[in-house]
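Can anyone check this?
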Amino acid sequence: MKILALMVQVQIGDNVNNRVCFYDSLDKELIEMGHDVLWLNLIQLYYISDNRSKKEWINSWIDKVKKFQPDIIFTFNNQISEEIIKVTDCPIILFEADLSEFFANTDLIKKYKDRYYAATFFEQGKKQYISLGFRDDRIIPLHPATSVKRENKPKIHNISFIGSSFWVDNEYVKKQFLPFERHSFYQMFRKFWESNDYDYEKLVNRYLGKNKLSVFDHYLIFDSRSYILQSVLDLGLKLYGVYWDKSVSQQLLPLVCAFDKTPMYSLRHNQDVYNSSKVNLSISHPQCRGYAHPWRIYDIMASGGALVSSVSEALADRTKGYVDIPMYHSPYDVRDLCKKLLKDTPFRQEVISASNEFIEKFGRWIDNFKTIQEYTGVKIAEPSNGEGSASIEYDLIRAKNIKARYKSFLYGILYAISNLPGIHSLQSEKYRKKIYNALVKYNKLLNKKEPTHDQIPRFTKDKQ
């Protein structure tokens, strides 16, 4: 089969083709089944400012998609354009990477409802899909899955965490609330950590008043990621990921010092880190609300390191009777759990072995492929005799930058020549202005930077 996979991911490391573990695992499994996968990373749409340029960017992929002729499309958070839908006639599977409020182009779902299926990893995910207009028979129930394998590596780290810093300097909250309601904020945080209650709206309404903050403000305010990592610093923390050295304030200098800039994103990277650590942390994004959990959970459970996870009702329900995963709610709970696991080796090994057994029974990709095949009729669960292949398309902007560098150099030379004595008088002011404007235009293109994580309309659950 030919699978077109559409996603949004910031660049990690020095290669635009680097993918996080979840996408890397899915790609590996599909290739091993003998399928061909074409990945399109649509992140550049978020820093092209005008609609005309966006159309040009999208249209540049159409010939590739038409030539590829996919049998099925996987789109994460509905990262897809109508142009791509129009040149294909296959089923579209919408995967949730976040809550539906972070989905892109939701108008296309109803417009092309006969093409769409929705895949969810959580029972509660059905509710958000129904609210988007999906019928129950178009919602595909899947389970989280991993390709990570346990390896007997020396345990060189006590505690490891691979993930992004979601820290954002929320100026609105600081200016509108902190000067007047510091005490209320403090009481709200105390109640949050004491209560195990993830109803952020109820907490905000009680302490700050109704309709004062958006749901996105809630996610920023109740993000405990930095606090949790600080609480285990003295136990021996190895921190990988992105943005920790850029977004964390100087007051958290010890946390920045625990950060290792070595890129750790792929299946191989995650497998190596998790297998060489005694304890591996998973910290949920606030949008999980104590129910869902990140993709990394199953990666850790498949490894030779013990999982310590944020509270997840879905995870507890799934693993009941197989393994009792150590879970925490506050930054203070996590410290006690980590200390116990580091000290009590038999307990740690019991958690690891039971987790491994659970993954082998309920955490591999082949079951999901079978379910997708049952719903769509596309035979992705049947191995091919041939070898699969994958390619990823990402860096069209870099190609455009080559053109921009050439144009910038060319117009720079022309502008310099136009101002030489003798030549200046032969050319009109209008001509020189035209040359100058072109020079400015292409210099601006060269100076455009890729968006940071807080500029992209998504708060991951998370992918990395």
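Reply from J.R.: I decoded it. Confidence is low (pLDDT under 50) at residues 395-403, 448-464.
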